[in-house]
Design goal:
Elements (H helix, E strand, L loop, with lengths): L2 H16 L14 E2 L7 E2 L6 E5 L1 H7 L4 H4 L6 E5 L7 E5 L7 E5 L2 E2 L21 E6 L3 H4 L6 E6 L7 E9 L3 E12 L2 E15 L9 E15 L4 E18 L8 E20 L7 E17 L2 E21 L4 E17 L9 E17 L4 E12 L5 E11 L4 E12 L3 H5 L1 E2 L2 E2 L7 E14 L4 E13 L2 E7 L4 E6 L4 E15 L2 E13 L12 E10 L4 E10 L2 E5 L8 E5 L2 E11 L4 E8 L18 E9 L1
Parallel strand pairs: 6-9
Antiparallel strand pairs: 1-2, 3-8, 4-5, 6-7, 8-9, 10-11, 10-37, 11-12, 12-13, 13-14, 14-15, 15-16, 16-17, 17-18, 18-19, 19-20, 20-21, 21-22, 22-25, 23-24, 25-26, 26-29, 27-28, 29-30, 30-31, 31-32, 32-35, 33-34, 35-36, 36-37
Length: about 625
């Protein structure tokens, strides 16, 4: 596929559409304030990044149990789940690795250092979420190591009024999902407490046998804020999840998992204290953030505890910002210290599995944003990191957006990013693998070019982005070392490439009917110019929302995932093989009936076509399922 030719054709089409005699009106969607694309809150239309937002209404339309399922409709995202609800899940952006994406919960980095720096999507439910902000492209100059491919910020709700809410849901496979929230609101004080619980018998992950692999998760959220005076405010938030997921393993070493009594327990949490001080006289605004995230994971075989991993990350961050030139320019300064700890325990003949490691990172960053005139906005950021384990590093990013008309803008960005080797890659020990402490950080250079336009009185929004990224020092976690008769990790000598196209379309042209769609083409090659595994070249989705009556709403979601490759490890001594997982289409339907201002009934029909497919080779996914739920609030 010729990406540039497609992009040029799209621009021509938009130009023709813009020549029509339509009245322009900026929609609330594109003028939303985002807090993730900069060190300070900015208008979405002033960002040169490709930004997506999942609103409260979109989250309610989907009513997904897992957060990762909400991301399947986002341009540039691909999801690989090894089985059923609660199974290990990886999310990749623009063909990058799963640990190249930073995930924040209320601004707190929640990636798990004990799980290869990936976010534990399987252990975090979609309970009590207000919105999700997504910024694609390199963000290391603002967010540090790991942010090679982008940032996802999961924002929990604050109390908007004093009240109470609860929901109950029952579904296929003995799935139970329930929760409640308590809210208290005063002019200068608010507090919210939420609790959610989900459990399911699940389904059989393995291709053979009939053992079901279940899942349990209990999530508690707390958020409060107080406005001490016109200048000073303090906020506190916390979120914790604990539970269990069952899984299968390759017991006979034939390369495919079989039924076995295995499960893992998890306990994850994030906590944040933030102090904001904003003088009226236009001087520097100050933000002090202290946060901590913890992750504890333990694996059991036949009821006996085996490997244990645990991690914690403490962050102390100061951001100061000042606006000048009639508020058209903003200069921001960041000072940050991270302290990470990692623990591994177990019993494995391959090496010393009992490890205690730590590392510290001190960072300084600057960001400058300015509206040159009514049409042109430019921004630049630079970051310097001093890591206790690796050489000091510097990353930068530049971006610009230019408004061709009141309804059309073009945007572009160029930047560098890094990904430090993980604790697991350096010191991990498990069957057939021994870590390599001599690894160096991965480094990337990326650019993107995009445009956004509004048509028909702002009721139609079209967006397109092309992107290109080059990764050096890529870490290969499957390097066989004959001196130790095991696999290890190693940096590659050549560069790998990722490029592609993202398209999205949103239409609210009819009062009772709306449609949104997204398409992504990703061309991701490793250092040997071979397709990277679990990166489908083509992904598309369509959402249709219909207001059938004043109280009845129907949402239909169609997801297409193209062919993708994976690796199969046959019995020894045969070498590993690259296999192809065929494309699949999944249809989901959500029906909402608003019985009153306080009471709502909803029905979910998942995988309505009962599609049989795999996202990880050898791991079965769920077929058709249905659930019914009730929501009550006052």
């Amino acid at each position: 596929m010729k990406i540039k030719n497609i992009f040029a054709s799209a621009i021509t089409l938009i130009a023709l559409l813009n020549s029509l005699p339509l009245i322009s009106k900026t929609t609330n969607d594109i003028e939303e304030v985002v807090v993730t694309a900069s060190l300070t809150p900015i208008l979405r239309s002033r960002s040169g990044n490709a930004v997506s937002i999942l609103s409260r209404q979109q989250l309610q339309n989907h009513t997904c149990v897992g957060i990762s399922d909400l991301l399947r409709d986002v341009p540039g995202f691909s999801v690989s789940r090894a089985g059923v609800l609660g199974s290990q899940t990886q999310v990749r952006v623009r063909g990058a690795e799963a640990n190249h994406l930073v995930v924040l919960i209320d601004g707190v980095e929640a990636n798990d250092p004990s799980q290869n720096d990936e976010f534990s999507w399987a252990t975090v439910s979609a309970t009590d979420i207000e919105r999700i902000e997504i910024v694609r492209g390199p963000q290391s100059s603002l967010r540090g190591s790991d942010a090679i491919a982008g940032v996802v910020n999961i924002i929990t709700p604050s109390a908007e009024k004093t009240g109470f809410g609860l929901f109950l849901e029952r579904g296929s496979r003995s799935t139970h999902h329930s929760g409640f929230n308590l809210d208290f609101k005063q002019p200068d004080f608010d507090v919210r407490l939420g609790l959610g619980h989900v459990e399911s018998d699940g389904g059989n992950i393995a291709r053979s046998g009939n053992e079901k692999d279940g899942y349990q998760n209990t999530t508690l959220t707390f958020k409060t804020g107080v406005k001490i005076n016109e200048k000073l405010s303090v906020s506190l938030s916390a979120r914790g999840s604990n539970g269990m997921n069952q899984y299968d393993a390759d017991n006979d070493y034939d390369g495919l998992v079989e039924d076995r009594d295995r499960h893992s327990n998890f306990d994850n949490s994030t906590r944040r204290l933030q102090i904001d001080y904003s003088p009226r006289n236009g001087s520097w605004r100050h933000k002090l953030l202290i946060s901590r995230s913890t992750n504890n994971n333990s694996a059991f075989v036949n009821g006996v505890e085996g490997n244990i991993t645990a991690s914690s990350k403490d962050r102390y961050q100061y951001v100061g910002s000042v606006s000048f030139a009639d508020e058209s320019s903003t200069l921001s300064f960041l000072a940050e210290r991270d302290q990470e700890d990692w623990i591994q325990r177990g019993d494995d003949p391959w090496g010393d599995v009992n490890q205690d490691r730590e590392r510290d990172t001190d960072s300084l960053a600057l960001e400058y944003r300015t509206d040159v005139n009514d049409r042109l906005t430019i921004a630049a950021s630079v970051r310097s990191e001093d890591n206790s384990e690796f050489d000091s590093s510097k990353t930068f990013r530049t971006e610009t957006t230019y408004r061709l008309t009141d309804r059309t803008r073009v945007r572009g960005a160029f930047g560098t990013a890094i990904k430090n080797p993980t604790f697991t890659e350096r010191f991990g020990y498990y069957t057939n693998f021994i870590g390599n402490p001599n690894l160096v950080p991965e480094k990337s250079r990326s650019w993107e070019l995009g445009f956004d336009t509004q048509l028909s009185d702002g009721n139609v929004v079209l967006s397109a982005t092309i992107f290109d990224s080059e990764l050096a020092n890529e870490i290969d976690g499957f390097v066989y070392d004959p001196t130790i008769f095991a696999f290890t990790s190693g940096n590659t000598n050549s560069k790998s490439e990722r490029k592609g196209l993202e398209l999205s379309f949103i239409s609210n042209f009819w009062d009772s009917f709306s449609i949104s769609s997204a398409y992504t083409y990703t061309h991701s090659k490793d250092v040997d110019s071979v397709d990277e595994v679990r990166r489908p070249k083509n992904i598309a989705s369509v959402n249709l929302s219909w207001e059938a009556t004043e109280n009845l709403f129907l949402n239909t979601n169609l997801q297409f995932t193209g062919d993708q490759t994976d690796v199969y490890f046959p019995p020894y001594p045969e070498p590993s093989q690259v296999v192809t997982m065929e494309n699949h289409t999944v249809l989901n339907v959500n029906i909402n009936y608003i019985a009153s201002d306080r009471f709502k009934i909803y029905v979910n029909l998942d995988n309505l076509l009962d599609e049989d497919y795999e996202e990880v080779f050898g791991y079965q996914t769920l077929g058709f399922g249905a659930s019914i739920g009730l929501r009550y609030g006052f």
